[in-house]
Amino acid sequence: MSDQPNYDNLLKKLQSKYDAQSEDTENYLEGLLYSKSITYWDYIHTDALLSLQIQRTTFPDEMVFIAYHQINELIFKMILWEISQVADNENLDVTFFESKLMRISRYFDMLTTSFNIMREGMDAEQYSKFRHTLTPASGFQSAQYRLIEFASTELINLIDARFRKTIDRNTPFEHALEHLYWQAAGKDYKTGEKSSLLTNFENRYKEEFITFMKTYNTKNLWSRFKELPKEAQEDKDLVKAMRHYDHTVNITWVMAHYNAAKHYILGPDGDGEATGGSDWQKYMHPKYQRRVFFPELWSTDELKNWGTDV
Ligand code: HEM
User: Which domains does the chain have, with CATH numbers?
Assistant: First the structure.
């Protein structure tokens, strides 16, 4: 008997794969002869990734600021990736839903606990100088953060509480967008005038947001939860996972972010002004924003005290 491995079976499978695509197997096999073997750095695109941290000043701590924001954007991408699998699953069940929700929550937990990298990790004096080169930009303009919100809840829960009564499922999406809670960071409701923070953001992303809002209108996490059978909606672990996610995104992360902002903007070198120009102390606190993804999963008291005990 020969010691040579027998590849007949593998070759047959390859042949059926390429036959099914009306492709010539031989060309593909020959390609293998000449293709380069994969390396870690080619696969991860390390060089491209590490060339993206470009400072606007010479302050060393600006690097921390840029890199940490980029890490956040990568994690936001992973969160959206997991949400989309719940949104598009045709045979959604409790086990799958809960496991994805736990993945999403772990990512947000990580973002929350790591916020000290911002809170403690930069020299306040350096920050107070390089931040001026960033005006009028702000993390507020993170599009993925907004997509996570649209993909998590019914649109009505993202509408500024003052206008909720005027908006329902028949309201055009464009009108709803004009009344999202985050408009308050840069819109004068009396004159309709918007800050550059908001105008620049909308010029770049408005159309994309409207398409995404439409797509997720019926397949956001809350809609998918409500499609589950009644007993699944009462599953203790799933409800716990939903509440944990809501609390982490809308209270714990928001507070970690708010405390970092307070440290730098109100600290000894801070001037009290946000780069994006919002009335940030009011705007950013969860007790004013009262953003809740899954209000039906909280008691009246819990909702009343949202963000007040932190
Ligand atoms: C020193 C660190 C930070 C400070 C001082 C800070 C400050 C602020 C301020 C003042 C706002 C309100 C809008 C404005 O007027 O600019 C804001 C919004 C925002 N920032 Fe930050 N931020 C920091 C770090 C981060 C990081 C690391 C992220 C992660 C991507 C981030 C994401 C956001 C988001 C998503 C908003 C909008 C929140 C909302 O609409 O409720 N920020 N930030």
Answer: 58-304 (1.20.58)
Give residue 44's pLDDT.
Answer: 98
- pTM over 0.90? The answer is yes
14, 8 contact by CB (below 8 A): no
Across the range 7-35, mean pLDDT stands at 97
Q: Under 8 Å CB-to-CB from 214, ≥6 apart: which residues?
A: 173
Q: Is 145 in the pocket of ligand 1 (CB under 6 A)?
A: yes
Taking Cα atoms as reference points, which of 243, 260, 221 lies closest to residue 112? Answer: 260
Atom of ligand 1 nearest to the CA of 264: 5
Higher model confidence: residue 14 or residue 274? 14
Burial class (CB in 10 A: 0-12, 13-18, 19+), 145: middle
Going by C-alpha positions, the residue among 293, 205, 174, 178 that lies closest to residue 241 is 293
Is 277 or 165 the better-scoring residue by pLDDT?
A: 165
Measured from the Cα of 277, ligand 1's closest atom is: 15
Give dist(CA 201, CA 15) in Å, integer.
51
Q: Is 270 in the pocket of ligand 1 (CB under 6 A)?
A: no
Closest C-alpha to ligand 1, atom 18: 140
